């Protein structure tokens, strides 16, 4: 116990972090070429440590896991961590410091606000990796990705809550909230479709929006499921350099979870 907040997460968080660490490991040779001119970005960092639900198992948060993986072979030049709650960012920074990772800046606020501050300070010549892991669809407005995509050499690994979409897609449409996540969906999606078809149509439109930003979006979309095989979220990799997709393909080819069939 270190006196800081912890969050409770499902066991699938370990699977998500495994993929993140693997990507950071595979991309380490590319990062070394930039000689420290690199950054890791998280806008939903949480407190940096979690306990698995109904288990005593403690795990590091994704930002700490990423920082530690970077240390093994090619450390990030700087870490930018944000969260809606400053208690979380303070805890996460402290836990990074416990691992001798001190090249960290913290940002408290909504992701669409903190991303603007972070991007203004990023080097255009550096190599960047952003990990976006929000709790819900509404917490990931497309403006966040659009702002990140203004930075050259930006790779973005995005967690899209499939469970949230499946449960709430029609409500998100009615409330207007879906327009923040996937702008312009109304012109492309027939609302008379079945729920499962709506979910896939929204996801397809959202991926098209990523491509319109100039990002190369991997067709290897990882679908992560829970202990009862219930679908939880998709992991999507998008970046400007073809190597990003090549690295993600290597991650996908070594992990057992199902992929989304894309036609």
Automatic annotation (TrEMBL):
InterPro entries: Tcm_partner. It comes from the Bacteria. This is Three-Cys-motif partner protein TcmP. It comes from Dyella japonica A8.
